[in-house]
Amino acid sequence: MGQLGAVTPQRMSFAQPLPLRSGAQIRDYELVYETYGQLNAARSNAVLVCHALNASHHVAGVYAGEDKSEGWWDNLVGPGKPLDTDKFFVIGINNLGSCFGSTGPMHSNPDTGRVYGADFPVVTVQDWVDAQARVLDQLGITQLAAVLGGSLGGMQALDWALRYPARLRHCIAIATAPCLSAQNIAFNEVARRAIITDPDFHGGHFYQHGVVPKRGLRVARMIGHITYLSDDVMEQKFGRQMRAAELGYSTQDIEFQIESYLRYQGDKFSDYFDANTYLLITRALDYFDPAREQGGDLSRTFASARCKFLLASFTTDWRFSPARSREIVKALLDNKLDVSYAEIDAPHGHDAFLLEDPRYHGVLRAYFQRIAGEVVA
Fold it and tell me: Which of 158, 231, 238, 246 has an alpha carbon 20 to 30 Å from 41's alpha carbon atom?
């Protein structure tokens, strides 16, 4: 398998206002994106990759001259990899409200000239999909070979099948759900409260005070990270290993290796992620519930879908359990749609969708080979 090598982000500007589900709108915004591979003459080989909470448009490849700049799904996307860039034109778009280049809370509001901060409008999965569709319009792509995403990205892939049924031939949704459970919403709320109650948050306008609510971000990341791992992986990696040979008998110092690991993850996250973006994205997760408009009937919700589907889940993923994927599969089968489903026995928990599991990658490789056989040159 080859490597993509150095890649370069691109920007696309939009003057026309984007209507949002909340009733608000946003104008004069930018979206950052990357592409890999070549768009064929028929413009029929494009695959959109949708990102999850703390990822971005940088799906694959590396940035020239930067250490540790590998794309977040580089093990999946590239020459000869399951999503083969020798066959497909792959697009990654940074979502509106992110802190990785697209217009978000850290940018200036054109109506006031001041940084948005907490005044950035609430965005939803549906808003992101509408914004992505505008990028594809500018690229001259009327129909995608596939939309692919994991976790929150999988929700976006599902929403593509609902909002733009004629614009994709395949929907590939990995480790996702038709909506969050009450437990998942609860985890998100605890993380948000950690940020909001940080004295440095200043109601979301901390930029003006020259501070960052790092304490809240650290706790939010620690909570999230626990939910991404399985109990088996945590036990295997850390168990009850101690930092020192003897007990310190302290309620505040680090005693166990798992504590050290979580603090490291929290510290790292607080150095690069924006607090307002975290609030926006977790709320978008909470709001996603396409069946709500159909009285909770998921089968009726997918009646408008026209594409083919692949869903995959992981046995130890307790945050987006296989049962949630099976709910989607049943709804699709109720509508007599073409559905493939893989339930992969993997020990890694929710993070499994990001890892190079040979069975998981084998499923995606076979499915993308199927899609490649359908592509018009």
Answer: 158
